[in-house]
Specification:
By secondary structure, the protein is an all-alpha fold. Helix content is 69%, strand content 0%. α3 packs across α4, α8 runs antiparallel to α9 and α10 packs antiparallel against α11.
């Protein structure tokens, strides 16, 4: 995607939006959505996202689609969400590609199609979008739509885990614990469980508890200390 323009002041950005600049309109929509510099107003956010989206701005199209997806400032309408997310996804917006993949996986606003879901997850994953990397890893681990491949599952889990995606950290830990797609390494498993658990991942917290319960107290403490020291 092309480099996004920036403005020195909120006033300059708002003026540019009012004069029709689509990137400024998109940023102004974000300000209204988040209450940054203005009173939070989802309907006003939608107004500016719509103006920018209709001019073909992919980031605005993604935001606009997500508004329809969540019913924020507009009635929830999955068909409209899919329409605008597709517009942005085809311009290589990774967040839009991920969300469009989710719609295909769940069958909301489009006919359910796991192959299309994987296609869009892959597009987003290759652009570094962590949630898409995690979902793609799950497809490879389960062998749904794509041939089962634990090594590729580990590859995508690791990519997402290193961006602090907690479910990916947990699944990567499980791969190390069981030796799926990677050489079994209990210390590495604990390391990733700890990172996920610290973010509140319940499965990782459970797995960590089971791991410690299976060990002698001294051994558990030593393993925890070693895992926490690992990079």
């Amino acid at each position: 995607m092309a480099t996004r323009q920036t403005w020195d002041t909120f006033e300059a950005m708002k003026l540019a939006a009012e004069e029709g600049d689509p990137q400024a309109q998109c940023y102004l929509g974000v300000c209204y959505q988040n209450g940054q510099g203005v009173t939070q107003d989802y309907q006003e956010a939608v107004k500016w996202f719509r103006r920018a989206a209709e001019q073909g701005d992919p980031v605005a199209q993604c935001y606009f689609g997500v508004c329809y997806l969540n019913g924020a400032g507009v009635p929830q309408e999955f068909g409209e969400a899919a329409k605008w997310l597709r517009e942005a996804a085809e311009q290589n917006d990774p967040a839009a590609q991920f969300n469009l993949g989710m719609l295909y996986e769940t069958g909301q606003g489009v006919t359910q199609n796991y192959a299309e879901a994987v296609k869009w997850y892959r597009e987003a994953a290759e652009r570094g979008y962590p949630a898409a990397q995690f979902n793609l890893g799950v497809f490879y681990e389960t062998g749904q739509v794509v041939p089962q491949n634990f090594q590729l599952a580990v590859k995508w889990y690791r990519a997402a885990a290193e961006q602090e995606c907690a479910p990916a950290q947990c699944n990567l830990g499980l791969c190390y614990q069981t030796g799926r797609g990677v050489e079994e390494n209990q210390q590495e498993a604990v390391k990733w469980f700890i990172r996920a658990a610290r973010q509140g991942d319940k499965t990782a917290q459970h797995n960590l508890g089971l791991h410690y319960a299976s060990q002698e107290p001294t051994e558990a403490a030593e393993n925890t200390e070693t895992a926490e020291e690992s990079p």
